[in-house]
UniProtKB/TrEMBL annotation:
The keyword Transmembrane helix applies. Keywords: Cell membrane, Coiled coil, Membrane, Signal, Transmembrane, Transmembrane helix. It comes from the Bacteria. It is found in: Cell membrane. Residues 141-202 form the DUF3772 domain. The keyword Coiled coil applies. Gene3D superfamilies: 1.10.287.1260, 2.30.30.60, 3.30.70.100. This is DUF3772 domain-containing protein. Residues 590-631 form the Mechanosensitive ion channel transmembrane helices 2/3 domain. Residues 50-93 form a coiled coil. It is a multi-pass membrane protein. Belongs to the MscS (TC 1.A.23) family.
Amino acid sequence: MSKPLLRIVLSAVCFWLSAIATAPVALAAPPAAVSTSASAGSNGPPVPTLKELQAQEDRLKQQVSTATGRKQLDDLVDDIQGLGANVDKLNEKLAPERAQVQDQLDVLGPPPRAGEEPEAQAIADQRASLIAQGARLDDELKQAAGTKEGLANLTQQIAKMRRTLMRNQLVLQSGSILGPTFWAPLFKLEPADELRLHGFSDEVAAQWQSVWRKGQRGLTSFLLLAALALWLLGGRLLERGLAWVCLHRIPEGRLRRSLLAFATAFASVLATALAMQLAYFAVARAQPFTPILEEFADELVKVAITCAMIAGLGRALLCTERPSWRLSAMADPVARALKPFPRILAGLLMVSGALEQLNRAVDTSVPVTVFGRGLVALVVVLTIGASLLRANRVRGALAAAGEAPEARSTLTGLVHAGVTLTVTIAFAALLIGYIAIARFLTYELVWFDIVLCTYYLLTKLSQDIFESLFSAQNSSGKTIKHLFGLDDSHLAQASTVLSGVSTSLLLLLAVLALLQGGVGATPAILVNSIVSAFGNDQLNKMNIAPSHIVNAIIALSVGIYLLRAVRKWFDDDLLPKTGMDLGLRASLVTLFSNIGYVVIVLVTLAILGVKWDNLTWIVSALSVGIGFGLQEIVKNFVSGIILLTERPVKVGDMVSISGVEGDIRRINVRATEIQLGDRSIVIVPNSQLISQNLRNVTMGNRSQGVATLMLTFPLDSDPEQLRDLLLDAYRQHPAILEAPAPSVTFSQLTHDGITLSVTGYVASPRITANTKSDLLFEILKRLRAANISLSNPQMLMVQNQPPAQS
């Protein structure tokens, strides 16, 4: 490693270990251009006028808007600094003139008041001339201040353009980690990089000397040792104190376990933050940081907090010290195998991240920046890849030993496969030279792991809090029951609703955090960089923004996943506890899904930048299509909305329409599914259920059905005997209800015989047909045993006779 770079890295690391702490989190603004003020002496060059300075400013603005190269931007920065120096010279020239005019006005004094002796006309004219001259000088000073502010804005704009230009260069100007070009900055630096790093090292040394001079060393050493002790021991002591509170002050239940995990992660982050704050006070108490050190400190604090979260979340979720308190279903051997990796990743990421932040603060060249980013990506890839290999090896050993590995859900398997694929792609990108893509993937992978683990921990904690708060066995639940007059079912409903709301909010925050890309760049920035590097003039002409497309795809995927998750929560958790019938629950879930998909489509179109005033031709085409080919689809769609809102039929009803009789299984947007008795499904368009006569068997009464038989007997039969026989058959059948009692009605008396109607009630309309079949078997059996026959209807038989022979 070259001596300048070695000196800077060692100085930066030592400075962070002893000085950097939680400085203000807000990013420091880019340092303003340093103006080299020069007094306008009598023999110096003439000071430009205000109009000349404003003309030069307008010319610089045009040049900045058309600049494309780093050299052009550097030259423009020099021109802006020179123009700023001229503005300072003008201010130095105008300020004494304005003071002189004010002195002359003070000598003349105020004008005479009404009733006083009027002053001479020459004095009044002189006062008016001085007032006008002062107003002109004030206006020029104000315009000069505006010019100075405009130059500062131009400097910030150029800084953003330089960062964008470097980001675009990094997409292409990369080298494989196996090549000498990648490792070249370790052995030889460019002169410009050496100069910048030397300047940063001098600032670090000056800052350190301000607190290490004689008389300050004792206090500085004490504060730094206190910060180190707080960082090493404070987290453990705080964690043990919170664990004691969980064990002795929290009621028994799952809340203890989730609170302990949260306390472990919280203690790690809090101890790191407090230790760095104390170290910051120890080093910055004598003099404030320079702008470059301030920017470096701000970014380094973010990396330190990130590393503390990685270590804390790893200890909290693995929980190797108390396996029975582990939140996840991870096997204990796997957890022990993964125990060192969060700390290893946090430590390596802290060192490599500090190097990258040093490159960013000093604004090093592209090769040095590529080296720093590649080193960070390599550290993350190797650490996470090693943890995956070790976990898979332990799971394989458990399976070989006959022990069942931990049960994993489909989502967990997808996450594991996605992490493995990302690590593989990132490592391949490092090998073939795409450092920017590897750095993006690794940083996003770290950020995804942090957000996912935090979401999982907070979700478990919120669910356990509401479950414990509204539990009927705890004092809090009993107090709520007594205070609001609720029963246990209402407490369960409140717990489910609040848990669902908190989970939804946490999921929304997690998605927003992932889209923001807290550690690395966002996907939109990477896509824009790649497109800009290869040229995006054609896309601009077509008004297509690559970032909008990426964001729209992400929003569509996340929206569909969220909608399905919330729908499943409605269907499985919330609605079953409300006491609603199955049909109403199915209607609400279907209606919610339809509205949700419409909202997702609208949000996706809005992210794409689609303006509704540009869709007039689409609406016109749809209106024509609706008038011809789409009218049936629209009619069925509207009928489906009517079925879901008015609910003439609902899921679970037994209906009969056009000779089709069965149970409604699902009401879709276009058609309704009816299941027949043979388990086959008939698809009926929704418009038929609205426009045709429909028999809803279970709408009036779901709890009872009627089994009625009408039998005709000969005229010489004994009606009372028949009545007793039929009633006895009905009463002995197990499906016939005792109340209302079965009854026999004398229905008709004709020349064909007597017709009796026997009626009995069953528990459900769906068993009416089977009950009738059983009753007919039993009744015919009893009629034969009593030698009673059914009446044969008299029919007029007409036969064809052969013609008579003549």
